[in-house]
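Quick one: co-fold with 4'-deoxy-4'-aminopyridoxal-5'-phosphate.
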Amino acid sequence: MGERLIYMSGKFVPQSEAKVSVFDHGFLYGDGIFEGLRVYEGNIYKSREHLIRLYESAKSIMLDIPMTIDELEEVMVETVKKNDLRNAYIRLVISRGPGDLGLDPFTCKNPEIIIIADQVRLFPQELYDKGLDIVTVPTRRNTPDALNPKIKSLNYLNNVLVKIEARRAGVLEALMLNHEGYVCEGSGDNIFLVKKGKLITPPTYLGALEGITRETVMELAKAKGYEVVETPFTRHDVYVADECFLTGTAAEVIPVISVDDRIVGDGTPGPVTKELIQSYRQVVTEDGRQVYPEKVVNITA
Ligand code: PMP
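Sure, here it is.
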């Protein structure tokens, strides 16, 4: 496989030449924002929703993206096309850009816009069939009044610490609690419980990203007639849930079968989780931006 072509502020450059300045405040301070999207069979799933979240994060940190949302969507499509991908992961990164060594972001005149499209690193199917063991970790979620987790910022150290604690506990993912002990989310995914046929997820004001997969899953579940409630819950509620699963662009819908060594439900992916895994996989080729519309053949004609 040849080198990927990376979009960097107006140009496509080979991966080996795609470099940022050591004075870039994204590198020096985590000053920037990002998005992660998936392409399924040439469809950038919920492209607009991801871009809107990106522009909202930018507004919150007072970073002016020097492109309209339409222009950014077009270069994203172009990046997928140039790399000849039909199924891919897209990483959009907007850093504050190069400035001086001080914190002041107003020394950074040119935000760096980076788009990487690459093969998706899929989780093994076995994890979806058997489910994940996870733990809760001592590291708490950033409080919304300190650094709001709704901002998808380049400052992911909170999440990295959680990943370290998960790996040291011998599992792949972990749950963060907020400063009051309520469950927030995983290091890179939102959490759902199923109890007595009802779906429960924490409200994002507790300290969680407004996940696009979370939103999709809530819509799918409601359409199937399930009651969905956003309410705070504790570790105890997770231990005694009938089912538990995580959601995210990369992970999609992934079952959890134990938390802190407590078996959830009967220790296998539950029926509601399985149903939602299936439905999610069905909708991802719809509702997005087609990368290769010229190649869509109308076979019903
Ligand atoms: N929470 C965090 C902290 C994340 O990084 C992600 C992944 N972007 C999610 C939740 C899931 O969000 P989405 O469904 O939009 O990918």
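If it helps, The pocket of 4'-deoxy-4'-aminopyridoxal-5'-phosphate is lined by residues 36, 159, 185, 188-190, 209, 211-214, 247-249 (CB under 6 Å).
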